[in-house]
Design a protein that fits this description.
302 residues, alpha/beta, six-stranded parallel β-sheet, two-stranded parallel ribbon, 12 helices, 8 strands
Length: 302
């Protein structure tokens, strides 16, 4: 299948490369000419184990291309992935300006039916905004799909090629079939593709990250109490993590959660709750606990 991936940041570059490695013809688009020229030469601007080798292999085999020409890419492709940044606003909300700008540009260059895929992490309701924007800029038929990523830094290639699950949020049978064709390799060893409506898919990404963030904050509070009462936090962690209902992942005490996703996604979900008059008390508490953990660390150092 012919696919365009707009954005060659962490998500877009990994997704585009892995989609090419799955047998698709992929054009990765970015408006940064210098970055595109660097990628064409086989040099990768981020470090991710196995990514550079995959890029070089798929470029040499004619499945992966890098370009700044969005018009040509859209015209050639059946599916267009939007994988641009969604930075956090000052109020904790998700800034959608880059997603919407790309959607508008894709609409202008459409020459027939396209599936537009939100790969960027976006709050519930974004697909509706993208749909309305595209409608106002094209006469061609299209569908908007949510396909959130679940990649861990340092393990992103393996996470994409051997995922726990692939979420496809679609309200169209036609788009669903196309997305299932793209991810058909994951049907060979068991069905890891979960199809749901668009809004549920958008919410799934935020819910998953916020739950994992909550586990981290919970364990940090337990560890802090252990220190006060003389219990061994590591023994407690082992004692509860061996419960199959809890598990041992994201249950290590420390500085708290960080990185590019958890803080941003937690705050965005809290903001979405506030906008819909729905208090997210547990997730808000995890957010406060995470901040307090860093303050506690500083006090310990002092």
């Amino acid at each position: 299948m012919r696919i365009t991936v707009v954005g060659t940041g962490y998500v877009g570059l990994v997704a585009g490369t892995c989609l090419a490695d799955m047998g698709n013809e992929v054009i990765c688009i970015d408006n940064n000419l210098q970055k595109i020229e660097t990628l064409k030469k086989g040099f990768v601007p981020i470090y991710e184990p196995g990514l550079e080798e995959l890029i070089r292999a798929n470029v040499s085999e004619g499945r992966l291309y890098f370009s700044t020409d969005l018009k040509s890419a859209v015209e050639k492709s059946e599916v267009c992935f939007i994988a641009v940044g969604t930075p956090q606003g000052e109020d904790g909300s998700c800034d959608l300006q880059y997603v919407l700008n790309v959607a508008r540009d894709i609409a202008k260059y459409m020459n027939g039916y396209k599936v537009i895929v939100d790969k960027s992490t976006v709050p519930v309701g974004t697909a509706e905004k993208v749909t309305e924007l595209i409608k106002s800029n094209t006469v061609h038929p299209f569908d908007v799909v949510s396909n959130p990523e679940f990649l861990k830094q340092g393990n992103a290639v393996d996470d994409f090629l051997s995922p726990d699950r692939v979420i496809i949020g679609s309200n169209s049978d036609r788009a669903t079939k196309i997305m299932q064709d793209i991810y058909s390799p994951f049907f060979r060893t068991g069905n890891r593709v979960i199809v749901m409506d668009v809004k549920s898919a958008e919410m799934t990404k935020y819910a998953a990250n916020s739950f994992l963030a909550t586990k981290i904050s919970f364990m940090n509070e337990v560890a802090n109490l252990c220190e006060k009462v003389g219990a061994d936090a590591e023994m407690v962690r082992v004692g509860i993590s061996t419960d199959s209902r809890i598990g041992n992942k994201f249950l290590f005490p420390g500085l708290g959660y960080g990185g590019s996703c958890f803080p941003k996604d937690v705050k965005a979900l809290i903001k979405t709750g506030a906008e819909n008059n729905c208090e997210m008390s547990i997730i808000s508490a995890a957010d406060r606990a995470n901040k307090n953990q860093r303050d506690l660390f500083i006090q310990k150092i002092i």
